[in-house]
Amino acid sequence: MLVFSRKATPYFIGFWFLSSIYDHFQHPNFSFRINLKWTLLITSLFIVYLVFYLFSDFSKEASKALEIKASFLVVPSALLLRKKQISKKELQFIFLSFQVACLCSATYLISKLVPALLNQWNFLKPEEFTYAIRTFMENTLGIHPTYLSIYYLFSIYLVATAQGIELITTNRRIIIAFKIFAIILLSTICILMVARAPLLAFVFSLVAVATLKNWKKGLFSMLIAAIVSIASIALIPSIGNRFKEVIESEAINEKTNSVNSSNLRKSILSCSKLIISDNWLGGVGLDNVQKELNNCYDTYGNKELSNRNYNSHNQYFDVILSLGILGFILFIIILIFPFFGLDAFNYSSFLFFKLFMLICFVTENILNRQHGIVFFVVFNCLYISNYLWFKNQLSKPKMNENIFLESLDNQ
Questions:
Q1: Long-range contacts for 149-152 (Cβ within 8 Å, ≥24 apart)?
Q2: pTM as predicted
Q3: Which residue has the higher pLDDT, 156 or 247?
Q4: 3 Cβ partners below 8 Å, 6+ apart?
Q5: pLDDT at residue 80 above 70?
Q6: Average pLDDT over residues 287-316
Q7: Are 53 and 65 in contact (CB under 8 A)?
């Protein structure tokens, strides 16, 4: 997804889906009962969207919403119903492949960014620097900076915890060199983009996982994170300006001359809350989410919001607006249920991923774009499939009952 054109992504997913269906029919005697439970849980959200779509006016907005949410049907059906689930080695290989894809795209991005900065350095004003960098990166890779930050920050976690690298080498020096190179490269781009929510989500999730594994290390990590965060805001202008913008910005009105991401979000938040308060039970339907938001935006006397068709910028609000409170409850169950079913507090990699995404959902409609929903659903299903593989291993004779937790700790 990070190396090939995004237009090619659906074709790769379609080919993978068809090959998985073929694999299903190759094992007609295999019982899918255990795997089916997890598959139905995840696909249930798509089913709810389908029901709401059938009661809609089949508008372009409703069709697009259903099309994007199809990942909740395709990915778990193809991945979790396979006879052979994802083993530890296969999961590590996928992690390594993802890291390589991130590093390839990051290297390409830097190779384009440095010459551009050198050519335009004298023309860039300090207050325009971050915006110029974010726009350049989005135009170069075709991926919104928030989504790119999510990819790179998750990859940093995988690199830091040595996920996958030991498949190709066990040399300690090579592993350390790889970690230093990858973390510096990916961190530099994330800092330049200053995607606030992913950065905060990364720090919080990292500290939370460290605290659950060892509370003393967790407190130490919390202290270090606080010092680094304060220092970054105080000493790095691009970061400081972005956080200062949040504090000083007010909701947009007819007198607003300067529109930025912060005052946009405050106005969007107010409208989302107002519409939800009047339509919390059944939502406004897939057809009317953007229409209702635009109508509310117009009351501010500034056409910037409605002309650009800004969405709710909050995944939880978007689900309530589309499906109502019952759809929202189902969405929350899908997000948190694996925590209890997978013993996730020992499965630190999975726990980090879930916490990281749950926080990112607060400021972006991650699941309303292919770049977001494919990333989330694929990795979520990979972790569940890996759990099913471990469970199958434990059911075999002469297998130690601690294999699962020991293997998870190694991740």
A1: 149/190, 149/193, 149/195, 149/198, 149/199, 150/195, 150/198, 150/356, 150/357, 150/360, 150/366, 150/372, 150/375, 151/2, 151/102, 151/375, 152/102, 152/106, 152/186, 152/189, 152/190
A2: 0.87
A3: 156
A4: 101, 104, 105
A5: yes
A6: 87
A7: yes
